[in-house]
Write a structure and sequence with these properties.
By secondary structure, the protein is an all-alpha fold. The chain contains 19 helices and no strands. It has one domain. The longest helix has 28 residues, at 28-55. The protein is globular.
């Protein structure tokens, strides 16, 4: 076959170059301007919040980082009175009263594996503990996003720092950046270092409900080494926690978690306004616990079914990786708005996929809504009138992933001839990517 004939045949079967309907990806200037403006606003509000509590001594304004107050006091009690004391609600209430307003109490509702992680901050002052805890979370979070996005030469840093999920996490003093970093690192490392990926998955023992879909993800992908590694390191972390704190601490933790579930998760009233889940939305709207659980279970079943199809298919790695954190957030009946910091992970993977394969206006709008929705979650709690929008945004985000996976699989493969082994040239003059492949996760 002549060179010209071969070129014509390849062109006939070429995969079209990605078309970005509605304009190209926003330029770096626009991302920096919008992200920088929001970043300034967020941390100006945080500064005013801190000033009102610490300088003006307004006791009606809780200290920023109120959940970190709980963590720090639990760790301090563990250091001074033994680990089981961290789960004693009476002791914890008395300790928190020095910082939090008298009408606010937060029980320590985490397993001993998380107590092991935060134990060192119990030896610090609250101010030093805040700096160490917050800086560590931000560094891990940015490190994971850099591993995902930097290779695309995208202006990722300012949008990543300005992401409202980061601001909300810092305002509340929560551990969402740590759990998001562990999950994100596992997805990045999975292909090139499954043992390390398993170790990262095991770190989710600090908040076990967030790791619930990882075993299914690994099974569907036949990632046996990562699965064994995750199991091994999970058992190791549990064993170290048990050796460090003893059986009494695990018994106290189980009792405290049962009290927390009954008093707050199912009958918590105000706190459920902050739950961006189907269960939380229905409970805050007045539906019974049984009905709310039933509807949530139905939605979760559909989400898992869609993800099993995705994870067993040959769709791009970016889409499979994006779907896992979305599904994790959707199947949990009890989450709070600060857990939406996990949305940084699917947004990062979808950004890579958008750059490589194009996107349309609707997909970009969904990504923007996902970027903003953690802030809406916090303001929904403050206003108690708008409700949580996150369930709708999560459905739309998962729909974008599924639709892009289906579109990739509808691409007509070239006929199996001697020429088919040569990758067809895209319209841009470069080799078109195989829709079944992606970057190593």
């Amino acid at each position: 076959m002549s060179v010209s004939q071969q070129g014509k045949q390849q062109a006939a079967h070429a995969v079209p170059a990605p078309i970005t309907r509605g304009g190209g990806w926003p330029g770096s200037r626009r991302l920096h301007v919008y992200g920088g403006a929001l970043l300034f606003l967020e941390y100006f509000l945080l500064g005013m919040w801190w000033w009102g509590h610490h300088v003006l001594k307004n006791t009606t304004i809780p200290s920023p980082g109120w959940d970190l107050v709980v963590f720090w006091n639990a760790a301090s009690l563990a250091v001074t009175r033994g680990a089981a004391a961290a789960y004693d609600w009476a002791l914890l209430r008395a300790a928190e009263a020095a910082i939090l307003p008298p009408d606010i109490f937060g029980p320590f509702s985490y397993p001993p594996t998380f107590l092991l992680l935060i134990y060192p901050i119990g030896m610090l002052s609250f101010g030093a503990a805040t700096v160490v805890f917050s800086a560590s979370g931000i560094a891990l979070y940015l490190g994971v996003l850099r591993s995902t996005l930097a290779s695309q030469q995208l202006p990722w840093l300012i949008p990543a720092v300005a992401f409202p999920g980061v601001w909300v996490t810092l305002v509340t003093g929560q551990n969402s950046l740590f759990t998001a970093a562990a999950a994100g690192a596992a997805l990045v490392l999975l292909r090139r270092s499954p043992i390390a990926a398993g170790a990262c998955i095991a770190m989710l023992c600090i908040k076990p409900q967030l790791g619930i879909l990882f075993p299914l993800y690994l099974l569907c992908g036949r990632q046996w080494r990562a699965l064994v590694s995750a199991a091994f390191f999970s058992v190791l972390i549990l064993a170290v926690s048990w050796l460090a704190f003893g059986t009494d601490t695990f018994v106290a933790a189980a009792k405290s978690l049962a009290m927390f579930r009954h008093a707050i998760v199912e009958n918590g009233g105000v706190i459920l306004y902050g739950a961006p889940t189907v269960f939380g939305t229905l409970r805050s709207a007045g539906y019974s616990t049984t009905m709310s659980y039933a509807v949530h279970a139905g939605v979760a079943t559909l989400v898992i079914a869609a993800c099993i199809w995705l994870w067993r298919s040959t769709c791009r790695v970016e889409l499979r990786a994006a779907s896992l954190p979305i599904a994790t957030l959707m199947v949990q009946p009890y989450l709070i708005y600060y857990d939406l910091a996990w949305l940084a992970l699917p947004m990062a993977w979808l950004t890579v996929d958008f750059v490589r394969h194009g996107s349309n206006r609707f997909e970009k709008a969904v990504l923007l809504a996902a970027w903003l929705v953690p802030a809406q979650g916090l303001f929904a709690v403050l206003s108690r009138s708008t409700g949580q929008w996150a369930p709708i945004v999560l459905v739309a985000l998962l729909a974008v992933v599924v639709q892009r996976a289906r579109a990739a699989q509808r691409v007509i493969a070239p006929p199996e001839t001697s020429d088919a082994a040569t990758p067809p040239a895209a319209a841009t003059g470069t080799h078109a990517p195989n829709p079944a492949q992606g970057t190593p996760a």
